[in-house]
């Protein structure tokens, strides 16, 4: 089960799911229809992520749930940032079974004075307290691969401008750099039962991939 499959991270996760021969089927959930070209992929359209009860039957039976939904915090108040980052993530965990993987970010900390880091850190803590297998991945700088791009204009510009830096960053700061490919592979590995810490930074994501 993939939430946020139309975004950069979610598209990477979906791609790696469909490339893995051990994955029998993938269900994505979104507000808008999605082109489905693989027989193993089914898309569920749902508008209100605060309440997934109306589509709970369509989301049943999953071995894993990847929560990849996200929104930039730029220009948003905490009240505006909270739903996608926290509320929807907890609702997905309530409805969808199996191993739960939450895509957070480097620097998340429930005690932080920075709004986005505080909200993500709080969400991490609440998810990790659940009585089920939960993993939090904290990527830093993510290199888009295989034609995948960010839906956020400023991020697209940043990734395009800085693409030449990735080889250097991987050498000097491996704990902060990963790719959509490695992130997706690591998430699939977690779904398949790989041994890993509950919190994974970029270097651990890359190792698991």
TrEMBL record:
Listed SUPFAM superfamilies: NAD(P)-binding Rossmann-fold domains
Organism domain of life: Bacteria
InterPro entries in UniProt: NAD(P)-bd_dom_sf
Descriptive protein name: Epimerase
Species of origin: Lentzea atacamensis
């Amino acid at each position: 089960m993939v939430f946020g499959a139309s975004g950069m991270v979610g598209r990477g996760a979906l791609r790696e799911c469909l490339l893995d021969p051990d994955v029998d089927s993938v269900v994505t959930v979104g507000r808008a229809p999605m082109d489905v070209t693989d027989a193993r992929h089914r898309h569920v359209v749902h508008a209100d992520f605060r309440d997934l009860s109306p589509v709970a039957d369509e989301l049943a039976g999953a071995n894993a749930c990847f929560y990849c939904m996200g929104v930039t915090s730029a220009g948003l108040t905490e009240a505006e940032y909270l739903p996608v980052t926290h509320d929807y993530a907890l609702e997905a965990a309530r409805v969808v079974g199996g191993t739960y993987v939450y895509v957070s970010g480097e620097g998340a900390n429930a005690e932080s004075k920075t709004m986005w880091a505080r909200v993500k850190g709080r969400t991490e803590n609440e998810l990790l307290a659940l009585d089920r297998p939960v993993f939090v991945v904290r990527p830093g700088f993510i290199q888009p691969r295989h034609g995948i791009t960010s839906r956020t204009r400023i991020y697209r510009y940043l990734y395009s401008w800085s693409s030449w830096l990735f080889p250097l960053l991987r050498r000097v700061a491996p704990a902060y750099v990963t790719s959509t490919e490695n992130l997706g592979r690591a998430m699939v590995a977690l779904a398949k039962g790989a041994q890993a810490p509950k919190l994974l930074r970029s270097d651990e994501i890359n190792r698991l991939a």
